[in-house]
Amino acid sequence: MAARRSAGGFNIALAFGAQVDRYQNLVAAGGGAIRWRGNVNSATAPERVDAATVLTAFDPVQRLLLRIAGIDGYIQVRDAGSSHA
User: Fold this and answer.
1) If we measure between CA atoms, which residue out of 7, 12, 16, 26 comes closest to residue 55?
2) pTM of this prediction?
């Protein structure tokens, strides 16, 4: 999964679709942990969003690659705290 930091959380591209276990587990648990730049961030409130809502968080090359790959599933999660790993 490709992820990008956003105000108050993360935007995550579902490169392998919403049927993958990682996504299903995140939704079932109501959140999880994201390792980002040496930190483990607790995330909560996973919510499916459309591409237009989150694509601006990705850099231009990533946006292009996500579009070329046909990725159209995205989620947003909110920060629930973080710690160094």
Assistant:
1) 12
2) 0.78
